Amino acid sequence: MTTVAFILVSWRPDVPAGMERAVAAHAAGLVAAGHKAVIVTADPTAPRSYRGATVAILSTLTGAFPCDDDTLRAAIHNSTDAIREQLVTIFARERVEAAVYVDSLWGLGSIMPAHQKVRNILAAHVVGHHTDLHTALALEPAAVIAPSATVLAQAAERGYHSADWTIVPNTLLADPAPQPQRVRDQLHQHGPIRVLARLGPEKGVAALLAPRNQLDRPIEVALASAPFEKATGSQDEVLRRCQALAAKAPGVTIRAGLNWDDVLPWLSAASIVIVPSHAETFGLVALEAMAAGTPVIAHDVGNLPDLIRDGGAIVPRSQGSAALWRASRQLLNDAVKYRRTSRAAYYRSRDYWPALVANQLLKVVS
Q1: Which terminus of the chain is more exposed, N or C, with fewer CB under 10 A?
Q2: Where in the chain is the domain with CATH 3.40.50.2000?
Q3: pTM of the predicted model, to two decimals?
Q4: Residue of 56, 79, 75 lying closest to 67 (CA atoms)
Q5: Which residues belong to the signal peptide in this entry (predicted)?
């Protein structure tokens, strides 16, 4: 049995953000495979256990969430020694053998303590600010992992030697069962088109709602706020913009975000899921939709083309959001292609099932 700790100061269940969701799935996958996982968070509202993983609260980092990167960076700087000391204490208590610092800033990778008994791993879900990433790499982690080749390419473009980094993709929280074909056929005929996103401008939801979609079926959009934002009030601004656009578009409804356990069932009850993001280093919403057999329509950005492949349709971002609606209409109007795409989506998602990804992660951390 191997004990792996994941450090992410903003972690708590049901946070609508890729890193938090990825940590939950990695931890659950390791536990299911017979190993021990520890999640270290600074959020005092987090439970003390999650799907068999131990949750440890980091009390030495104080601050209020949501906050921007500069605020968090200053808080870490002011408490570096205390944070390191508490991490070492947690690792000793839980007998941690490998520590995955989930991001150079939010995952405390820039201050990871050096110790002989714990293997330090830096996770780069995104290529962070040079201030944090350069400092983290200078601490010489035993390995650097990223969820996709997109991150490796972006890091190389910015001058980092990412050829030595290892891809460990994100995974699902559970192994989904295939959806009965009769259910998928009914959804093809009458199911809503659904969009699930965090309230970030880069998620592209406002741009998606701007043009007329010309589809005679419900459009349902779930938007959620995260415990971080690029600038104070930016999430509220995106929400107001989306609500104003939806009010002018018949058949479009906006609802609050979903708990993690509710995401896959909600996406599975859609005819199509549109991922309108302008940037994605992995694409968890797309993966979860495909795991339910729901075709995904997305722009040709980041990791989405490689993730989705024949499990949906990829359109050039240069063609704007109207192209996403056009691709949706074309797929819904072709019953044979729709059925083929649905099946391809499900089987494509199996490459990311928890047991497979847990083994990939263990090869790096062991």
Answers
A1: N
A2: 3-168, 181-351
A3: 0.94
A4: 75
A5: none
Task: For the chain, list residues with pLDDT below 70.
Answer: none
C-alpha 170/C-alpha 125 separation (Å) is 9
Burial 230-244 (b: 16+ CB within 10 A, else e): eeeebbeebbebbee
Orientation angle between helical segments 335-349 and 322-332, nearest 10 degrees: 110
- Please report the pLDDT score of residue 353 as a whole number: 94
Alpha carbon 227 to its chain centroid, in Å, reads 14
Residues found in the chain: 366
CA distances from 85 to 92, 99, 122, 349 (A): 11, 14, 19, 40
Q: How far apart are CA 229 and CA 279, in angstroms?
A: 16
The four Cα atoms 7, 9, 10, 13 give a dihedral, to 10 degrees, of 50
User: Token pair for residue 254?
Assistant: 């906006």
Q: Are 114 and 29 in contact (CB under 8 A)?
A: no
pLDDT for 152 equals 98
pLDDT for 68: 82
Give which of 173, 140, 167 is closest to 32, Cα–Cα.
173
DSSP state of 177: P
Supply the pLDDT for residue 226.
80
Q: Which residues lie below 8 Å from residue 119, measured CB to CB, with a gap of 6+?
A: 97, 98, 99, 142, 143, 365
Q: How far apart are CA 70 and CA 358, in angstroms?
A: 33
CATH number for domain 3-168, candidates 3.40.50.2000, 3.40.50.970, 3.90.226.10, 3.90.180.10 = 3.40.50.2000
Work out the angle at residue 345's Cα, subtended by the Cα atoms of residues 343 and 350, and round it to the nearest 5 degrees: 100
Looking at residue 115, its pLDDT comes to 80
Q: d(Cα 206, Cα 352) in Å, to the nearest integer?
A: 30
- Classify domain 181-351 at the CATH topology level: Rossmann fold (3.40.50)
Residue 333 has what pLDDT? Answer: 96
DSSP code string of 201-241: GGG-HHHHHSS----SS-EEEEEE--SB-SSTTHHHHHHHH
Among residues 111, 99, 129, the alpha carbon closest in space to that of 23 is found at: 99
